[in-house]
Records
---
Amino acid sequence: MIRNDIEITPELIAEHGLKPDEYQRILDLIGREPTLTELGIFSAMWNEHCSYKSSKKWLRTLPTTGERVICGPGENAGVVDIGDGQAVIFKMESHNHPSYIEPHQGAATGVGGILRDVFTMGARPVAALNALRFGEPDHPRTRHVVSGVVAGIGGYGNSFGVPTVGGEVNFDPSYNGNCLVNAFAAGLADTDKIFYSEAKGVGLPIVYLGSKTGRDGIHGATMASAEFDQDTEEKRPTVQIGDPFSEKLLLEACLELMASGAVIAIQDMGAAGLTCSAVEMGAKGNLGVELNLDAVPCREEGMTAYEMMLSESQERMLMVLDPAMEEQAKAIFRKWDLDFAIVGTTTDDLRFRVRQHGDVMADLPIKELGDEAPEYDRPWEATPKPAALDPSSLPAPNDIGKALEKMIGLPDMCSRRWVWEQYDHLIQGNTSVGPGGDAAVIRVDGTEKKGLAFTVDVTPRYCAADPFEGGKQAVAECWRNLSAVGAEPLAVTDNLNFGNPEKPDIMGQFVGCIQGIGEACRALDFPVVSGNVSLYNETNGQGILPTPAIGAVGLLPDVTARATIAFKAGNDAVIVLGDTKGHLGQSIYHRDLADGRGDASAPPPVDLTLERRHGDFVREEIRARRVTAVHDVSDGGLLVALAEMAMAGNMGAEITAKTDLALHAWAFGEDQGRYVVTVPDGEADALLARAEKAGIPAARIGTTGTHELTLNGGTPISVAGLKAIHEGWLPTYMAAAPEL
Amino acid sequence: MKSAVIVFPGSNRERDMLNALEMISGTRPAAVWHADSELPDVDLVVVPGGFSYGDYLRTGAIAARAHIMPAVAKAAERGVRVLGVCNGFQILCETGLLPGVLMRNADLKFVCREVMLETANADTDFTRKYAQGQVWRCPVAHGEGNYFADEATIERLEGEGRVGLRYAKGDNPNGSINDIAGILNERGNVFGMMPHPENMIEELNGCTDGRALFESVLEAVA
């Protein structure tokens, strides 16, 4: 057994991820040398993952309030009013480091953690999404990571019983040694039945709920705040193991308990487990907390205070209970076969005191543990503003049809069916639009037709070239995705994945992206209500592409009026809204067909005024049921968007590009703020007139019909042929070699 | 029609089933807790989908030994209709109310997608509202739907018209023998199927082909 009073050496301090000056701060704060348990507690509270010490300064600049915002960042998840006394509660969180070390369990527990964040607040989870980034396909580990992560996400969400309705997948060499697994979850609650983590009342019982505590995941949060190196494999024991069955029981038990009125405050045990949850509940409520570790349900014998305080065993909750309701609460947990133990009390002395076997193992000032965490204003260097790409520097393809076929079969562009067919996207019976569209749409359970839309998006190559524009674009694209199904965009959650913030250029990427996100969120009235920062995503000194993934939620008054991307009927007019300028810098065409990977040219700029105007117009058209299909134009440009609509509808179109641009720039340029819509032939002129009145560039570019896509009368491209290529890459790739 | 839906720890499509039955029959079914030992007086008992007991040990194995299951078996003996969907099918096989087993999908992956089903026998209490040979749309969502039984059992099932539903040609998502998607017991009042008709009953689902299955039972018990 590790003793609590061993000497605190500089090596031990370093192993806990604390810098010498941070340790000095601890000494100043408590006026003595910490015990080992106390050192562990500090390292858990003060690591980057829990304390946001490098990012806090910049996160404060984000807009977090709005008419519909009930609760912004700082709680387990953000809460947004959706009318009729209902709220949507959502957040996105990373589980990058564990998922690379042990893909299946890392991803599974990422899903478990985010679901818990949502139901801790009293919401029943109704949708899950995920944003995944993997290394280049040829990297020897990529297949293994993809396979494990997808199976882990599916295995957890499917068993728990939440529909996984959308997400995104990218491949890039910068993720070779550091995949990104960002899990999003949303739940529903009544606005007057939302639960918070702030403890209230002195001398009240603190109750431990859920699974038993084991030795798994000790120091997980500290690991998540460190870079990877050759010894990464050795960190496998710090990855927790998920049990979706226990989580499902915990969900049902918690919701039942909340409905009984017994819960005063509740906090899930996520990163840094018992430590973080207890300190947060006490510190938020200006109360002390005293824990008796002898009462903590343990999976293993002889666990030390240090281990118990740092364990990240999954599916656990901490709660302040109304003492008058103790028996009812116990009965509920017995019914669900879950552990229920009173492990402490709230106090009025603002101390965080931990006792075991009659000894005080830790006695620390509770407010300072959280509030006095170091906060850094890290030096940063802005990424140099990139120059615009000279379009004439990119060669035209010999055959535009062949170029399209190549584009839609690329690892980053092909169908993700292989992934989402492993996720139950139909459970709960409310899915209206599942994976594969611009945004997922579900009906709000129990209502006739009220709906919610969800999307996750970011374009890391844009962010690398120009963090500010890239940050703006991530938000704008989410806003566009929601508008493209007919939803009113409500709010976002941000999951900021970056490299080592101690490097000024990486910190510059972070600052630039945040500024871009902030600008777009302000311009689009799209507040950030929750989020998560994941730094130190580096391997052997190489950072990932800056990847500020945005998750967003929108509201539909009537799900039956939502739009989907598929061409619906022949002889519909195909209309593009928004200006096509042929911007090829940082486009997929540039990167993958013209050898431009890593090029520093400028990404397409985002005009937020136009973005709003175009989105508002499209949403109105959808709600009035005037359009038959809608798709936003993003990666790959206009021709790829058209091909996606054709493949989804198993129907072709005859397209005519009336343009002065080079055809490949017209086809594959990634100008922002554009949508393709279809309307019955006879209604095209009216739509064009409405667009003109609204000040939106709009042009009819073709007519749907047949089973082929033709461009400017060229060789017809078979839609079935495109589909075979589009659907083929991922299954072929995953089947190509045995799993590790 | 009065119906009951059994709820085990880890059931997760019981709400879908309760809603579907209510929507189609007009009466809210009773939700019956696994630890109870008696069923209310009903025309139909449904064992719903999910991951009862986390699918630990073997899918359906622990649920098959739950307190409520003897009551379900007794009801089946009395001729009450019993429907098992997905995990419910697995549970009914584990209790012995239906023959055979459900193994892991042939490709070892969970699969959630729409498939085409063929009504292999339209002369049953669960399929009578479909036409014989009718091909209809229905989603599946399972990791262990690969139906298997010994040769003699399969021969009997086929010979006695107890294969109610098959995956349409070329659309078998799990490798089940003879493309079997749903089977009946000898008496014809217990039916197990892997697909989820309860998720294919209203416009929101994009198709209502699953309704006829519930309407069949409704008609049968009327």
Note: Helices of chain B lie at 14-25, 69-78, 87-95, 151-159, 211-221.
---
Amino acid sequence: MLDTLRTLLLTFLHGFHRRATVQYPEQQPYLPPRYRGRIILSRDPDGGERCVACNLCAVACPVDCISLQKTERDGRWYPDYFRINFSRCIFCGFCEEACPTYAIQLTPDFEMGEYARPNLVYEKEDLLISGTGKYPGYSFHHVAGVPIPGKDRGASEHERAPIDLHSLLP
Amino acid sequence: MTPLPLAPIVLTPLVVLALATVLTWVERRLLGLWQDRYGPNRVGPGGMFQAVADGIKLLFKQDWVPPFADRGVFVLAPAIGMMTVLLSFAVIPLAAGGIAGGLNVGLLFILAMMGLGVYAVVLAGWASDSKYALLGGMRAAAQMISYEVFMALSLLGVVMVAGSFSLRDIVAAQSGLWFIIPQGLGFVVFLLAGIAETHRLPFDLPEGENELGAGFHTEYSGMKFGMFFIAEYAGIVLVSALATTLYLGGGNGLLLPAPVWFALKTGVIVAFFILLRAGLPRPRYDQLMGLGWKVLLPLSLLNVLATGTVMMLRAS
Amino acid sequence: MYVLPLLSGGLTLVGAMMVVTCPVAVHAVLYLVVTLLSLAMVLAMLGAQFAAALEIIIYAGAIMVLFVFVIMMLNLGQPDRDREKEWLRPRAWIGPGLLAVVACGELLYGLPTLSDPDGAVFPIDARDVGLSLFGTYVLMVELASFLLLAGLVTAFHIGRTLRERP
């Protein structure tokens, strides 16, 4: 009996507490930088696409929402198309972890409501952003050993020049 | 034959229905307040038109009668619920004296209408022909008949002190001291019985949405459900208005005019009902019946006995 | 002036007829409720408002609900309705019907002999009822309370939980 009355009193006193609700559309909630929201494809600092169409993200994806096709231009790999079906995506972030080039990244944005399901299939042009995302200075092709136009073999950062096998000098 | 008081007859149901509709919004806002959230605050100023929006939604829903239901009774049940509550308001002495505020069996009339209100729930449960609805209906039958007893017994004290069944006389008898002082025990019993009678949380076992689906109105949709819903809230207003009339001196009060006092007191009791909903969990069915027959019945009998003794001693 | 009493009386009769002829038990009980309500109206118009209110509270509000409750528990179905219809054939009701006609005729014949005081309506309020209950009929009240107490004790005895015998 006394417990009941105490419960009522405490409930009544809650009327004077601060409310926990966030008035969402007017008052945006705080999303931490590593929040896993809408997926984007980032670019190199010099503006090229980072994605090398290695398919690791599509393999890592538990719900198979990523599909892409490789194509080659000037010795460099690109995705021909890159498609994410966000009506399937569970925002687990495995694709981001699998990506060797920091191309695919999850952003703190979740406002992607649509009335029709097909509108949730994002193509490459919808996914590509013009910036570098979370890794500003990183450029895969300047670190990796693969030669591209404008950077020969051995010209990467932290890479020595290739050894000339035909030379006998040490 | 006295002329029919046309204005109150037309106005009272309209006002009560409007109040009950607004009360659905008030309840949700107050629940929000006591649970550290907002509640509906989008439609109109402060969410005031939420009830209107809900009503429009209910009106445009498909009015579906299950093929296995007993059609006539199924349609009749919500109407009974609504009618009994609205008829009860006829004898509440509101501002202008109500429709028949001076009826010399006014209190009995309200008890009779509450007794008939059981049919709405029981018949809805039976006519739906589904197991959850039937369980809800059976719970309602036992619960409401039991609590009617305690309600009547708790009111007996008031009737003894006032010496009349007429609500207007009862209000007049409280011009000196509100009956909540000499009849505090009866007030508590009356409130508990009133909650059980309107099957409100925490005594909403006929509905019990987490054990019986929605209880007796599981199969109802559209405006038939809306009628149950509004009748429940009108029932809250009724019990609160009755408690105000019987125990809190009706419109008696200092400075402010009588209707304002009446509305204020009724509002406080309605808010208390909502606080009960916000704070308390639902008891088990045997606990509910045990509370009724083992606590409230002896208490209300004791109240009657004590009131009678004091009155006899005073008289001699 | 006599429209309301006649309407109520007619409703009572129609309701009573439907109680007997309705094949669905719950519908029959509902018609019985209608009968009781219109009967209460008749009582109220005769000045016995207290009795009318009590009739609604006790008969229509409590006892009839128990009837509905029991019928709900019985879970009657289509076979029961068919059996009810079987019982409503003329062969079954013609005997009771004749008896009822005889009783009605007797009532109609005897009606004019009943004396009408002076046509005025005397309201009977709770005070009068109480005085006659605890004055003239106090023995009946005591006997009824004995009966109720016995019923209470019996219900308590039957309803108690049995302990496991060691």
Note: The radius of gyration of chain C is 21 Å.
